[in-house]
Design goal:
186 residues; two-stranded antiparallel sheet; nine-stranded mixed β-sheet; 11 strands; alpha+beta
Length: 186
């Protein structure tokens, strides 16, 4: 299905679709005595984050006021890809990557298979299709590692790119068209 430019133009008048680089120390949701995305960026009030990213992590968060997209992206049955850059306190081994890819038992639950690839001695990328609370941190802990840095770099077809921490931008028409097609939203 191809989304016509007129539909995108019409939606852009009603809805907003934002890519935001959440800095470390900022909460995805509003918490008492804590910085949150919406307290830091009053211009984005009325928009909701699509998913969570823990306070100690940074990276890509999508925000919108389009409930249709919210439902499509947050429904766990949809299994949309989210990619992360991870730096840990120990060397990344082939065994570690195999375990991460096959799924890890954390608190009585086995995580779904993931894609992982080494990118340096202590750095790897992981692509998940689920989002359990602190999942990557807990997966690494179960393998005897501590996460030193966690950065979400992609949600489906939307990439963080060179967006600076604390900055945001509107999604492009091409990004929206692909995103809508992938979530079967017309």
């Amino acid at each position: 299905m191809v989304i016509s430019p007129k539909i995108l133009e019409k939606n852009s008048l009603r809805y907003r679709y934002i890519a935001y680089h959440k800095p470390k120390g900022v909460s995805t949701d509003v918490q008492k005595d804590s910085k949150s995305i919406l307290s830091e960026l009053p211009a984005l009030r009325g928009l909701s984050p699509l998913g969570r990213l823990d306070k100690e992590s940074h990276g890509l968060i999508l925000l919108t006021n389009d409930g249709r997209l919210t439902d499509r992206l947050l429904n766990p049955s949809r299994q949309h890809e989210k990619e992360y850059f991870v730096r840990i306190d120990k060397p990344v081994t082939d065994t570690f990557i195999r375990h991460i890819e096959r799924g890890i038992f954390i608190e009585g639950y086995k995580t779904k298979p993931a894609k992982a690839r080494r990118a340096g001695e202590t750095i790897f990328y992981i692509t998940l299709t689920e989002g359990k609370k602190h999942q990557i941190r807990r997966m690494c802990a179960s393998e005897g590692c501590q996460v030193l840095e966690l950065n979400r770099v992609r949600v489906m077809n939307i990439k963080l790119g060179d967006l600076k921490e604390g900055a945001y931008r509107d999604l492009t028409k091409d990004e929206l068209s692909t995103l809508f097609k992938n979530v079967q939203l017309s």
